[in-house]
């Protein structure tokens, strides 16, 4: 359990707080909907999907968040501009939760920004994500649409290198303020099991040096090798491995967690609640904390 000499920044997005000293604020849990291969999507290009099932999944997240008092975010990803607009329109009409606009295509993300701006939702959204390789065009687009909250993914080819992640962050920080990005959420980049430990170590370094809210897509440690894990451990064993990878970052004080598909909410929220509640009692006794 760590406490930091560096003042920790707290950013609010859609009424949800990201960041704090050790367990002062609960970690924010981010689940993805309409992801590649999502069974509720019938046509990913046109954005056609089972609305009843999608609403059920979002209601499950809301219920889990309400029961545990652990805040939630819906990460909306899409494969086309048309689909992004349809997905966002549906989600904002179903829930008041904050939203991450998520797409590897800047043109698709642009459609999300356009919708958010026209609907007056910019205070409720964040862009997921920029990297050290993001071009000025992407930053200018964020500035043009007034997107102030952004996830910074510390992607690196050196997946088990902590210093490479910190160097990526320095590159991003040098540009972010220039383009009006006020709320940076740092994703320390997980792609496989070896990278998970490096991402956790980088998370501690980022909070110690910069005081920024930090988290990761820890489930990638297992989901990127889903077939191999299922063949070795079976479906139940795979779920246990994925949940463990998610909890590893929470145990070390992550401010947010991209836990993967929203279907996992029923397992993730109670598990995080248990860990957060236990550590919160320890955090109240300041003498038990390790200062960094």
Structure write-up:
This protein is of the alpha/beta class. The chain has one domain (2-291): TIM Barrel, CATH 3.20.20. Helix content is 47%, strand content 19%. It is built from nine helices and 14 strands. The strands form four sheets. Strands 4-7-8-9-10-11-12-13 form an eight-stranded parallel barrel, surrounded by seven helices. It has a two-stranded parallel sheet with strand order 1-14. Strand 8, helix 3 and strand 9 (125-130) form a beta-alpha-beta unit. Helix 5 packs across helix 6 (193-209). The longest helix is centred in the last third of the chain and has 26 residues, at 226-251. It starts with a strand and ends with a strand. 44% of the residues are buried. The model has no long low-confidence stretch (mean pLDDT 95). Belongs to the MtrH family. This is Tetrahydromethanopterin S-methyltransferase subunit H. Pfam families: MtrH (PF02007).
In brief, what are we looking at here?
Its EC number is 2.1.1.86. Belongs to the MtrH family. With about 290 residues, this protein is α/β, with parallel strands linked by helices.
Number of domain modules: 1
CATH architecture tag: Alpha-Beta Barrel
Provide the helix percentage: 40-55%
| Assigned CATH superfamily | Dihydropteroate synthase-like
- List segments where confidence is low: pLDDT < 50 over at least 5 consecutive residues: none
Keywords: Methyltransferase, Transferase
GO biological process, one term: methylation
Organism: Ignisphaera aggregans
Family: Belongs to the MtrH family.
């Amino acid at each position: 359990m760590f406490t930091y000499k560096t003042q920790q920044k707290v950013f609010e997005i859609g009424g949800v707080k990201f960041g704090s000293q050790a367990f002062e604020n609960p970690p924010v849990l981010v689940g993805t909907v309409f992801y590649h291969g999502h069974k509720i999507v019938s046509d990913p290009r046109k954005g056609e999907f089972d609305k009843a099932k999608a609403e059920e999944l979002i209601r499950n997240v809301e219920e889990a968040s309400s029961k545990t008092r652990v805040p939630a975010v819906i990460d909306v990803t899409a494969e086309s501009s048309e689909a992004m607009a349809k997905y966002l329109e549906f989600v904002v009409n179903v829930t008041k939760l904050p939203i991450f606009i998520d797409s590897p295509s800047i043109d698709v993300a642009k459609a999300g920004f356009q919708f958010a701006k026209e609907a007056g939702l910019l205070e409720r959204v964040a862009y997921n994500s920029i990297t050290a390789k993001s071009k000025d065009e992407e930053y200018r687009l964020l500035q043009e649409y007034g997107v102030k909250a952004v996830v910074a993914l510390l992607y690196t080819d050196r997946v088990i290198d902590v210093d490479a992640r910190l160097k990526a962050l320095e590159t991003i920080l040098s540009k972010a303020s220039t383009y009006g990005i006020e709320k940076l959420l740092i994703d320390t980049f997980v792609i496989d099991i070896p990278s998970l430990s490096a991402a956790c170590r980088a998370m501690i370094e980022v909070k110690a040096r910069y005081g920024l809210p930090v988290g990761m897509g820890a489930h990638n440690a297992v989901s990127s090798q889903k077939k191999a894990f299922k063949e070795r451990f079976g479906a139940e064993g795979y779920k246990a491995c994925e949940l463990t990878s998610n909890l590893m970052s929470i145990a070390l004080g992550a401010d947010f967690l991209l836990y993967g598909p929203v279907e996992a909410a029923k397992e993730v929220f109670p598990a995080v609640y248990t860990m957060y509640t236990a550590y919160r009692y320890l955090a109240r006794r300041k003498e038990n904390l390790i200062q960094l």
